[in-house]
Amino acid sequence: MSNSKPPIATPTVKRRLISMVYEAFLLTAVEALAIFIYLVATRLQHTPAIDHGRNAVFFLVAAAYFIHAWSGSGHTLAMKTWRIKVVKLGYAKVPLRAAAIRYLMAWGWFLPALVVCYVFGLKTTGQVGSAIAIGAVAWGLTAFLDKDRQFLHDKVAGTRLIQLPKANANSV
What we know:
A two-stranded antiparallel ribbon has the order 1-2. It is mainly α. It is built from seven helices and two strands, in the order H-H-H-E-H-H-H-H-E.
């Protein structure tokens, strides 16, 4: 009889993608509040500087949300709901620097597609949506290049996602 613990499971790619969709809904609410405050503070003016500032607020609010969650508890609300946790290799708590690298690298889901849209002048909803969808699928396929099924941003940041066990109803 062995006293070893069972191996820690990696969440399926499907589970991670569903969690990301849920995360998008939650983050939309957080971002909407931040952008509302920014628009009120700038008195709804539209100048190039104010528009760039709005984009910076969008980026920084998302950064604060994710970096704080990942370096604190190891998961966001959506990840907690789907019992997914991000850990440093060796299952240690994620340091602030690794969480920041993970956040920046996770833009690989969208940024290459947005650059393609800019370079080729793609502007319609269909064109931009198609570019983002193709880019997201390409980035998602990076999980299948890794034996542990970790996405590229986790490999670069030195982190990994783990599947948390179901809570035991008898322990409550």
